[in-house]
Amino acid sequence: EVQLVESGGGLVQPGGSLRLSCAVSEFSFSSYAMAWVRQAPGKGLVWVSTITSAGGSTYFADSVKGRFTISRDNSKNTLYLQMNSLTADDTAVYYCARSGKGTGPFDFRGQGTLVTVSS
Amino acid sequence: DIQMTQSPSTLSASLGDRVTITCRASQSISSWLAWYQQRPGEAPKLLIYKASRLESGVPSRFSGSGSGAEFTLTISRLQPDDFATYYCQQYDTYPSTFGQGTKLEIK
């Protein structure tokens, strides 16, 4: 069964940094684009970033551009999201997802990881 | 950015009912439209992609239709597990955008 397991969330102060990971199994990781989608408490889904299957291209929402970096290690079947200069608006559950087209559709299989930005 | 607008925001229905949720895009997205179901405390689940294609394992009581800028998700014969929040998403272009969600409640 396809699995995506997010980790790395936690409480961080405004201006701080955090690195999220998404370990995947039971599918050919290197064949899929991968994405991060977040959901603030009680709010809707927001696309954050996508990386193509080989890692050659990355895309970001304007709200995180210049602060977040997406990367992947196809030898380790792991996706990453480096988040810098965090603000309270970044507080959310972060889901990783696989994607055939890059822009979507998104196949979510994990439970997400909660990032809380607060002093 | 392409704006996605769902209606209604909340929908009350009874077990066995047939319900329809509408999603409108601010410009044509061809058929690059997906629908997701999200239950409280769970990750979203992909139901339909390319406007009308049922994801593997999703019950046939779910169906999608539309193209261009107007789309619908129909659930026939509501079951207890169907009471959840539903989101549409356009994946025609970056940034990919979601509708605000439709909460399906038990009447």
Please explain how this structure is put together:
The complex is a heterodimer of chains A (119) and B (107). With 119 residues, chain A is mainly beta. Chain A is built from no helices and eleven strands. Chain A has strands spanning 3-7, 10-12, 18-25, 33-39, 45-51, 58-60, 68-73, 78-83, 92-99, 106-108, 113-117. Chain B is globular, with a radius of gyration of 13 Å. The model of chain B has no long low-confidence stretch (mean pLDDT 97). Chain B is built from no helices and eleven strands. In chain B, strands 2, 4, 5, 6, 9, 10 and 11 form a seven-stranded mixed beta sheet that branches. The termini of chain B are far apart. Chain B is mainly β. Classes of the chains: A mainly beta (119), B mainly beta (107).
List the defining traits of the structure above.
heterodimer, A: mainly beta, 4-stranded antiparallel beta sheet, 11 strands, globular, B: 107 residues, mainly beta, 7-stranded mixed beta sheet, 0% helix, 50% strand
Q: N-to-C terminal Cα separation of chain B, in Å?
A: 36 Å
State the total count of DSSP E strands of chain B. 11
Reading the helices and strands of chain B in chain order gives EEEEEEEEEEE
Average the pLDDT over all residues of chain B and give the rounded result: 97
> What would you call the shape of chain A?
globular
Stretches with pLDDT under 50, minimum 5 residues of chain B: none
Fraction of residues in helix of chain B: under 10%
Which helices and strands appear, and what pairs or packs with what?
The complex is a heterodimer of chains A (119) and B (107).
Chain A: E1 3-7, E2 10-12, E3 18-25, E4 33-39, E5 45-51, E6 58-60, E7 68-73, E8 78-83, E9 92-99, E10 106-108, E11 113-117
Parallel strand pairs in A: 2-11
Antiparallel strand pairs in A: 1-3, 3-8, 4-5, 4-9, 5-6, 7-8, 9-10, 9-11
Chain B: E1 4-7, E2 10-13, E3 19-25, E4 33-38, E5 45-49, E6 53-54, E7 62-67, E8 70-75, E9 85-90, E10 97-98, E11 102-106
